[in-house]
Design a protein that fits this description.
423 residues, 7-stranded mixed β-sheet, 13 helices, 18 strands, 20% strand, Ald_DH_CS_GLU, lipid metabolism
Length: 423
């Protein structure tokens, strides 16, 4: 198929996503528990935008002609890598589908995608729309199954040429090992995080509270890049904690299909119990429970928006990824100190910086060892912005031009030139 034909299919697919926006959003909320308004007004439109972005790339992927030190013609070809295996998580099922399927198809690959066992529905639905858009059968194959069986089979398969995985760091290590033990397929990993959100003493406290609240509590706290270590300068610390508490108490938790609800249930019982265990760790380790700390109601996997203050770097809640609505607020008094403490983590996915000082922002953006730094904003995920991590937060990048490299092989072709007019 020509690159132009691939582009047209992705453009038609984006149109169909928009046409079926409400049904797709309802499936995502039903499957995952996220607020319907979030799915319908943010996430599904973002999928259509991503597909148009990759449609635009499809016929602009090309190699180079390289000058050689002698009479040779040198071409560098960028070829489809072949069969791509893709494993997506349950926290953003549809967006992760788009992040992986878009570049793989733009580059001319076929793929086998495994959905998370908790959230298979939206990927199955939109894959049907891909066929309606003109994609031939067998190009995109969706497998619903469990990690230790279907996921392991995909990672180990000798006919899979490339593997992309989004999920926990521990599972990512298993995936990488299985890929290495099989055919040494290339692997990209987008893994966990414990992202610092640094609020300087020159900050507008009210604005900083709202942004830090969003950075942590968005999507029930189930974000790999959540600002889960909120570092606040000592001069504004007490004011910040009080206002963060007031904001958390106003957060609307309930039926995700109801208008105005900000927080739905956690994904399942396992995650629900894990979050409650971390809350107990926080209390037992001596952090101050400012608000929340328990389930909400007596049915469903709802958890009260929870805040801890007086959190120390060595505590479990400051070290490990909770993946839930639990904000840990830490105090600092010096720029160099907060840089050192922010970087003292196995993770390096993202960070937030809140300051009025350009010098401070420039210092922090270069010093923080993370893949994304948001300055006076958070969770901006435009199609062209690359996303991925340092350290144990992953290998490679999703979105943007960098994601195309994941799905292309580079081949050098060298031929002699007889009686060259020029070299």
């Amino acid at each position: 198929m020509t690159a132009y034909e691939r582009s047209r299919i992705l453009l038609r697919f984006a149109d169909l996503i928009e046409k079926h926006n409400d049904e797709i959003a309802a499936l995502e909320t039903w499957d995952n528990g996220k607020p319907y308004e979030q799915a319908a007004h943010i996430e599904v439109p973002m999928v259509a935008r991503l597909m148009r972005y990759y449609a635009g790339w499809a016929d602009k992927i090309h190699g180079l002609v390289v000058p050689a030190d002698g009479p040779h013609h040198v071409q560098v070809l960028h070829e489809p890598i072949g069969v791509a295996g893709q494993i997506i998580p349950w926290n953003f099922p549809l967006l992760m589908f788009a992040w992986k399927v878009g570049p793989a198809l733009a580059c001319g690959n076929t793929l086998v995608l495994k959905t998370a066992e908790q959230t298979p529905l939206s990927a199955l639905y939109v894959s049907k729309l891909l066929h309606e858009a003109g994609l031939p059968e067998g190009v995109v194959n969706v497998v619903s199954g469990f990690g230790p069986t279907a996921g392991a089979a995909l990672a180990s398969h000798m006919d899979v040429d490339k593997l992309a995985f989004t999920g926990s760091t521990d599972t990512g290590k298993i995936v990488l090992e299985l890929a290495a033990r099989s055919n040494l397929k290339t692997v990209t990993l987008e893994l966990g995080g414990k992202s610092p959100f640094i609020i300087m003493d020159d900050a507008d406290v009210d604005h900083a509270v709202e942004l830090a609240h969003f950075a942590l509590f968005f999507n029930q706290g189930q974000c790999c890049c959540a600002g889960s270590r909120t570092f606040v300068h000592e001069r504004i610390y007490d004011e910040f904690v009080e206002k963060a508490k007031a904001r958390a108490l106003k957060r609307v938790v309930g039926d995700p299909f109801r208008k105005g609800v900000e927080q739905g249930p956690q994904i399942d019982e396992e995650q629900f119990n894990k979050i409650l265990r971390y809350i107990r760790y926080g209390v037992d380790n001596g952090a101050t429970l400012v608000t929340g700390g328990d389930r909400l109601g007596d049915k469903g996997y709802y958890i009260q928006p929870t805040i801890f203050s007086d959190v120390q770097d060595g505590m479990k809640i400051a070290q490990e990824e909770i993946f839930g609505p639990v904000q840990s607020i830490l105090k600092f008094n010096d720029l160099n100190e907060v840089i050192k403490r922010s970087n003292a983590s196995q993770y390096g996915l993202a960070a937030g910086v809140f300051t009025k000082s350009l010098d401070t922002a420039n210092t922090l953006t270069r010093a923080l060892r993370v893949g994304t730094v948001w300055v006076n904003c958070f969770d901006i995920f435009d199609a062209g912005i690359p996303f991925g991590g340092y350290k144990q937060s992953g290998i490679g990048r999703e979105k943007g031009i960098d994601s195309l490299k994941n799905y292309l092989q580079v081949k050098a072709v060298v031929t002699p030139i007889k009686n060259a007019a020029w070299l």
